Amino acid sequence: MNKDYLADVYKDFFGEGALAPEKEEEIKEDFDIDEIDSLLIEEESKDLLKKVITYIKDHVEKKDNNYLDFNFIIQSDNKEVIKKIEDILKTVISKYKYLDGDKSSKCSFYDNDTLDKIREVFNSKIIILKDIKGFELRDDSFKKSFFHLLRENLENKMIIIEGVKEEIDYLFEYDSLLRSNKFPFILIGKDPDVLDVYHEVLGITKLSEEDEFSLKVLDYISDTYPKKDIDYVNYRDNLCREIALNHEVPKVESEKTLDEIFEKLNELVGLEKVKKTLHELVDYMNLQKKSTDLKLNNINLHMVFLGNPGTGKTTVARIIVDILYNLKYIKQNKLIEVSSKDLVAEYVGQTAPKTMSVVERAKGGVLFIDEAYALANDTGQNSYNAEAIATLIKAMEDYRDDLVVIFAGYTKEMQAFLDSNSGIVSRIGYTLEFDDYTEDELVKIFDGMMKKAGFTVEEDAYLELRKIIRENKDNKNFGNARFVRNVYEKTIIKHAANTRDKKRKSILATIKKEDISCENVRG
Predict the structure, then answer these.
(1) In terms of residue numbers, what domain contains 150?
(2) Are residues 364 and 502 in the same domain?
(3) Residue 298 gets which letter from DSSP?
(4) Residue 75, class by beta-carbon neighbours within 10 Å (0-12 exposed, 13-18 middle, 19+ buried)?
(5) Where are the alpha helices (DSSP H) in 399-431?
(6) How many CB atoms lie within 10 A of CB 42?
(7) Crossing angle, helix 3-14 and helix 43-60, to 10 degrees?
(8) Model confidence over 95-127: pLDDT tens digits?
(9) Which of 145, 170, 188 is the last residue of a domain?
(10) Spatial CA neighbour of 93 closest among 62, 127, 48, 120
(11) Euclidean distance between the first and final Cα of the chain, in Å?
(12) What are phi and psi of 402, to 5 degrees?
């Protein structure tokens, strides 16, 4: 909404002199006006909020003005600011009895899964609509019914809609006229500047500006705050928590180069086909970035990882995150790891919101769904699983420029999962196959673990290890590198017992045949 329109609203509803100095002084007697001045919202929004309070007070004191319905949009991702504004409005409504009641209720589009529950919320006088993102998950019938309910409940109530601009814009796509006619009062949030953040962090952590440590805090905020990829409140709280727990500011991680990332990839044992695919993918990405004249297709980065347990799927996913972040294909260097139980709910209507909340956490980065084949299991929960899959498919399409999804699991089971839903297959850009490790590769993984810990392994010990690997390798659920790690851990424990009476460093640092153990290690 443009400022000229808001200016007209002010004139029509409040008159030219609605906030004369004496009126601000009157509000001070009953209300802390400084609380509004300190809010992290735009100056025009502060002005609007003060005018509303003045108008409500004048109306109740019979100063010859008309009754108006005040319905607000609070456009911010700062939950603290949103709550403060809502508390101010509720306090004013209650104090001056502007409505014939002051009961307030919140409606979350994630939690309120039926229109009957939402109707209960609309029995209150102050209605707060939150988690607008959940509205996108509803079908057209629900959306139309909701707006019919909203239009019926606009008189003698205060409706507050909170959220970020994109979510609110989507909500009102279903009735843009209602927005312009009934929700002209928009309070727009803003982020503090670097010095504001610095002083607030000092206040919370009780640091003094004279303290030399506070300079490190300022340097950290200056380096990271302008590039933050989370909302301000979480940024501030994470920093304060780090200072409180560790008495230090977090390290500003330098961005890894592609050479450093691929060095880490190439150090992994085996996985030759995976390495080749990733090198080719990066070559294509670089060609696309360098050659603006070439008509190259946009890259579909959603992936499927096929392989048995312990074949490096999660490790490679973390490396892919580094690659995509380095090449600016994702905004945040983050990997959200989940399984089917994190997506599927227990009751009707809850799975789509639960899945969508995971998607929201992963946006800007990579969502890694391990053992994804469980979503296609033919159980009593199957309809809920199908709902989770449908929600994921929609998210993969809607957020293809802001989210990469990786489905991972055993090769055979994952093939059945992919065959169960063509919508997923059509959205997959890359399929990476993770082969089982050979005996030599598993020994090499074990050797790397031992060397990293500072141990030397005798030849007889390697022979014993090979024997154990051969005895277990054909087991149905053989764990590959996971199995080797378990043998490594059991071997260290047994070595500690075998050398409890020894003191010579060379003996303590040498793994012998009798130390190799697979006791209680599952295949």
Answers:
(1) 3-188
(2) no
(3) P
(4) buried
(5) 411-419, 422-425
(6) 15
(7) 20
(8) 888 888 888 988 888 765 567 778 888 889 999
(9) 188
(10) 127
(11) 63
(12) -135, 10
